[in-house]
């Protein structure tokens, strides 16, 4: 009886897992199928499931718009903003985790409040600042804007990882002649490598997918992939097949980046769960 009950539970869990898996993969699958359809097939209702696939959409998106330049812009902005956020965020998080000073808790909450602020509320001030600095339509403007929101997120996430590391490990290193900065770079950072990977993935995805500031702060030179997708909305209609092809290419770097650091991502998300 118990064996039958276990089998039923296992079967039920398998079915639920399969349904969730299908639910999650259905949108990317539809996006890919639309990208290999002609515009006529993409507009048919009900949707066509049996059709002759075409690959011309992927070639034509580079001919209709400078999509390659937009991919490079997005990659540069996402990588640099992620690197700066991790560098500044790790230093600030280490300071908040290891050193106690007056109103340190208030400072921590103030940093968190920046991340809780709706981005649209800061859109006009950031635009005016960038215009004063003559940084409009540059990648530097996007990097600075993204770091404004990524750094507080990185601080709060990495702060919890630093708190999981026993202070005695760093004290032992300093007894052996290591400076505080040496203990940070040689001891603390390697120990929270999974946390850095998890934080880096989240900040990279935010920077890669961000649309609002990329639309407001850029024109043509520093335009990124999310904004470039609006270029397929024409007076004659929406070019769904080409937009879907561009969407597939836009997802590809994130999938590759996540796959490369998948092991560290899982470790980072579960770090501190078991002691």
Task: Please tag this protein with its features.
single chain; 275 residues; mainly alpha; MetI-like fold; 2 domains; two-stranded antiparallel ribbon; globular
Total DSSP E strands: 2
Q: What is the subunit arrangement here?
A: single chain
Strands of the largest sheet, in order across it? 1-2
User: Which structural class should the secondary elements be placed in?
Assistant: mainly alpha
Could you give the distance between the termini?
37 Å
Q: What's the Cα radius of gyration?
A: 23 Å
Count of individual helical segments: 14
- The CATH topology of the largest domain is what? MetI-like fold
Instruction: Give the proportion of residues in helices.
Output: over 70%
Give a brief description.
This protein has 275 residues and is mainly alpha-helical.
Write the layout of secondary structure elements.
Elements: H1 2-35, H2 39-42, H3 56-64, H4 67-98, H5 104-116, H6 123-132, H7 139-164, H8 167-175, H9 180-191, H10 193-209, H11 212-217, H12 225-228, E1 233-234, E2 237-238, H13 240-260, H14 262-270
Antiparallel strand pairs: 1-2
Helix pairs in contact: 1-13, 3-13, 4-7, 4-10, 5-7, 7-10, 8-9, 10-14
